[in-house]
Amino acid sequence: MENYTFFNPTKIVFGKGSTNKLKELITDYNNIMFMYGGKSLKASGLYDRIIKQLDGKRVLEYPGIKPNPLIDDVRKAVDFCKENNVEFILGVGGGSVMDSAKLVASGALYDGDVWDFLEYREKRPEKALPVGTIVTLAGTGSETNNSFVATEPETLRKIGKSGSEINYPKFAICDPENTYTVSAYQTASGSFDTISHVFEHYFWLPEDYTPIQDGFEEGVMRAVIHDLPIALKEPDNYEARANLLMASEQALFGLADVGKGYGEHVEHKMEHILSAKYNCAHGAGLAVVVPAYRRFMCAHDPKKYRQFAKNVFDIDTTGMSDYEAGIKGIEKLEEFIRQIGLPSTLKELGAQSKDDVDLLTEALCENGWIFKNTIVTKEDIRAMYASVYE
Ligand code: NZQ
Ligand code: ZN
Q1: What's the mean per-residue pLDDT of the chain?
Q2: Which residues surround ligand 2, an ion (CB under 5 A)?
Q3: Is the pLDDT of residue 368 over 70?
Q4: What average pLDDT score do residues 104-115 get?
Q5: In this structure, are residues 151 and 158 in contact, taking their beta carbons and an 8 Å threshold?
Q6: Which of 122, 150, 178 is a domain's end point?
Q7: Element housing 140 (H / E)
Q8: CATH assignment of the domain containing 124
Q9: In this predicted model, what pLDDT tens digit does every residue of 26-81 receive, in sequence order?
Q10: Among the three residues 154, 178, 202, which one is the final residue of a domain in this structure?
């Protein structure tokens, strides 16, 4: 096991009615920038409940945060924040809103361009306004971590990065009932994102003996595989929604993967180019690239994939080689992706020509931070994109 330091100060307030705790969580602040996305917040009634909790405060509403936030929109929000003497930022929504809230919180106290925090690997915020989150879509785990993602569309650079210790939200209100209205597609996309967050660490350093982390991560995956189909059939099934939300939060909270090294997040980098180009849901893009990447890695070092097949999908691997067992597990994963209604090809995401395979490969290899610690080459990336074109 690698050495590790664990730090995550976000107060998690989880469960039915937890939105009603907002007032007491926010008592110290008066000028509140309230960031949210499109129509879903008012349609679900959550907007009214939040406004009630904010009674007596100066509320500076900032709606309209779009999925896969563009850096120009984040810059505009930073300007708004600077002009309005904001004391606290409340981000209510999915990853796009919560990431934007964290970026704005740091951009507002920074003289340079907020994009610097994404473009330069070593550049991390030194100051940030306090942020609170109310998550409405399970998947990214952004509510309880210090990461943010934004896109520069001209260059197809969609960059995700961990900020510094000051970028953890002060609190995260996680009420599974606030996720009842999420569409089946976004529910599946979010939960597949959760699985792939676990993958990035579970399969990393496969030779290390890490039974505690493995058990934790297998538990997260098993919960998603069990409860996602239930939530898709019964959107207001509290237990299923609760498990998906907890899985999402724990997959990237930092605890499940301590001592496992940082990883290269190749599949996330392969996906970020897709959501930059096609503006697809992040988890849907992952559903396309993850099986291709995992098939490639399984051929290289299959032992951990046998464990995955056995412990996550309960496959009887007796008599199989590690590779055969691992591929059975990946085939099960592909079946699961079809079952939950997510895409498997670039065409389904919006690709219209095979030229996209080269375009995506070039963009990724120019912009990405891959190849440092992995065996994956540029030609491997090209072959993987080509294998899922149609
Ligand atoms: O805009 P509204 O109307 O609110 O609709 C949203 C949006 O269209 C809808 N939605 C959210 N909550 C809802 C709801 N609809 C009905 N009922 C609700 N309760 O869902 C749509 C997608 O929202 P979005 O926030 O874009 O989805 P998600 O949570 O998947 O976030 C994706 C973003 O997070 C980044 C992704 O790259 C992407 O930009 N990520 C952030 C990470 C992090 N901070 O740690 C890690 C992830 O790997 C990921 O990269
Ligand atoms: Zn993700």
Answers
A1: 96
A2: 193
A3: no
A4: 98
A5: yes
A6: 178
A7: none
A8: 3.40.50.1970
A9: 999 999 999 999 999 999 999 999 999 999 999 999 999 999 999 999 999 999 99
A10: 178
As a whole number of angstroms, the distance between CA 340 and CA 349 comes to 16
Radius of gyration of the chain (CA): 20
Q: Ligand 1: distance of its center to the CA of 140 in Å?
A: 7
Distances from the Cα of 317 to the Cα of 53, 185, 199, 208, angstroms: 54, 32, 20, 22
Q: 199 CA to middle of ligand 1, Å?
A: 20
Q: Do 195 and 316 share a structural domain? A: yes
pLDDT tens digit string along 155-192?
A: 999 999 999 999 999 999 999 999 999 999 999 999 99
Q: Annotate 179-195 with b (16+ C-beta within 10 A) or e (fewer).
A: bbbbeebbbbbbbbbbb
Q: What are phi and psi of 104, to 5 degrees?
A: -65, -40
CA 382 to CA 390: how far, in whole Å? 14
* Three-class secondary structure of residue 281 per DSSP: coil
Q: How far apart are CA 285 and CA 289, in angstroms?
A: 7
| Same-domain status, 267 and 159 | no
Among protein residues, the one whose CA lies closest to atom 49 of ligand 1: 140
Q: Is 134 in the pocket of ligand 1 (CB under 6 A)?
A: no
pTM of the model: 0.97
Boundaries of domain holding 278: 183-387
Q: Which ligand is nearest to the CA of 179?
A: 1
State how far the alpha carbon of 126 is from the alpha carbons of 36, 167, 180, in Å: 25, 9, 37
- Whether residue 44 has its Cβ less than 6 Å from ligand 1: yes
Q: Percentage of the chain surpassing pLDDT 90?
A: 93
Same domain, 346 and 219: yes
196: its two tokens: 């792939």
Burial of 33 (0-12, 13-18, 19+ CB in 10 A): buried
CA distance 122 to 116: 10
Same-domain pairing of 139 and 281 = no
* 147-152 and 171-174 strand pairing: unpaired
* Shortest-distance ligand to the CA of residue 36: 1
**Structurally, how many domains does the chain consist of?**
2
Query: Is 142 a pocket residue for ligand 1 (Cβ < 6 Å)?
Result: yes
